[in-house]
What we know:
The structure holds 2 protein chains of 2 kinds.
Chain A: E1 4-17, E2 20-33, E3 37-41, H1 48-55, E4 63-68, E5 71-72, H2 78-88, E6 89-92, H3 104-109, H4 119-132, H5 148-160, E7 166-170, H6 178-194, E8 198-202, H7 206-209, E9 214-219, E10 222-228
Parallel strand pairs in A: 3-8, 3-9, 6-7, 7-8
Antiparallel strand pairs in A: 1-2, 1-4, 4-5, 9-10
Chain B: H1 4-11, H2 15-48, E1 53-58, E2 66-67, H3 70-75, E3 80-86, E4 91-92, E5 101-105, H4 107-113, H5 121-129, E6 133-137, H6 138-144, E7 151-156, E8 167-176, E9 187-191, H7 192-198, E10 205-206, E11 208-213, H8 219-229, E12 237-241, H9 242-250, H10 256-285, H11 287-296, H12 300-337, H13 348-374, H14 378-384
Parallel strand pairs in B: 5-9, 6-8
Antiparallel strand pairs in B: 1-11, 1-12, 2-10, 3-11, 4-7, 6-9, 7-8
Amino acid sequence: xxxxxxxxxxxxxxxxxxxxxxxxxxxxxxxxxxxxxxxxxxxxxxxxxxxxxxxxxxxxxxxxxxxxxxxxxxxxxxxxxxxxxxxxxxxxxxxxxxxxxxxxxxxxxxxxxxxxxxxxxxxxxxxxxxxxxxxxxxxxxxxxxxxxxxxxxxxxxxxxxxxxxxxxxxxxxxxxxxxxxxxxxxxxxxxxxxxxxxxxxxxxxxxxxxxxxxxxxxxxxxxxxxxxx
Amino acid sequence: xxxxxxxxxxxxxxxxxxxxxxxxxxxxxxxxxxxxxxxxxxxxxxxxxxxxxxxxxxxxxxxxxxxxxxxxxxxxxxxxxxxxxxxxxxxxxxxxxxxxxxxxxxxxxxxxxxxxxxxxxxxxxxxxxxxxxxxxxxxxxxxxxxxxxxxxxxxxxxxxxxxxxxxxxxxxxxxxxxxxxxxxxxxxxxxxxxxxxxxxxxxxxxxxxxxxxxxxxxxxxxxxxxxxxxxxxxxxxxxxxxxxxxxxxxxxxxxxxxxxxxxxxxxxxxxxxxxxxxxxxxxxxxxxxxxxxxxxxxxxxxxxxxxxxxxxxxxxxxxxxxxxxxxxxxxxxxxxxxxxxxxxxxxxxxxxxxxxxxxxxxxxxxxxxxxxxxxxxxxxxxxxx
Lengths: 229, 385
């Protein structure tokens, strides 16, 4: 775990709320080794999701740099970031965010629409991703025909289908019961251990954090406390 | 193209709303097709008019006849190559609703004046040999089931025969047609000599003259020269190009083009409001989905393109359906009312214009929602989800 995949250096992030400027992250430094599974915990409003957004190129820091792999994404334009996200990072959300008009397979295929793969190759890769998350037999089902846990598995398949090295999970079990949450967390653990995915997971759930290799506590815009699981 | 399946799924996300929007587009383009065809019928005379042909009518009114004697004087006017006389017979077959145009004329003169009408030479000769002979357009033949050799009675609303009988009999000797879709063949021609001899009154007069000018002659100068000749006669003339004559004839019914444009303008304005509202709602409802697309790596341009394509697809579905049904109705109407309004058809130009309007309206209706989707902040949209 010595190779560093993501480096955050001196990052601050402020938002303007009316006339007031709110600083969400303050002079934050962080290194995430390749193959790590990091849980980030902390109270609401502590900047966890903002940190995740910066790592995923969804937002840009007010100050400081974010480097993922060999790319300094904090200096990229919006279009460059779009292209970068499509190949380097997968996102998993609390509420799955599947597109209701598409089947599980078509949802998983979405990121592949941005590649040069033909329809058959896209379908083949989507099927492999669904098989990995254990939903190969639900490919033709629409999200409304799936349980919450199954929807989240489809979302995970969508996140891994373009084989990114980094997975960013924002409360991936926040909408699930304990048993289903554990299944999802075990799946993430498998992706980390067997498929070499680097995972950064934001969670409120201390039990969820135990599945990670280490946990960081984000509070008042800084990573104040670090502990090893 | 690979996004099309995705676009298609989004179009049908709210089926009832999409169907209602498509219906409004359908109605708009149905109207477009029908009004375009009616407009074409009123202007078809001008469209098929030959720039070298002039029409001479009585200066006061088209219904006032002109003396037969004018023919030679017109023919002798410098710049005139050929002259043919025409009159309005005003007949119907069996019952008044079977009205169509019939014109007594000179067989050779007429067909050399209108080379766009095609008929086998032997049929023309057969017509010339038979004083009661007549030739009919293909559309007349198909509509009434007439064929060569048939003897048909026509009742004239204007011209009784010498014995007072208004029913004239003609022998069909030929069938003419035209390749020009704007040209009508919904009329009949018969010999002017027969008409002149058999009619009870109006002898020595014709309805109007059609002139072909010599190559290189200035039509305006020729027209002025003709009118000048008859300036002090009891029957002063008004000579105009065939196109101007056809347009002034159509304008008797009002400015059809303006009326059609105004109706369609109102319809399409309403259509834009309806479809624009649909697209706005559609985008508002799936802000988070659009944010997810952008999160996955879809560029701002791709998101803009997806929303715009949805809008255009809705327009094309409704528009092409409307245009198709409109075309069928126009075909039927042309059969039914062709005798009263010949030249009613949906032109290729009208179809291309309609498709252009569909795409344009799709862009206009979708552009603001599409721009909203394009400028969407992923972080804000996901936070609201």
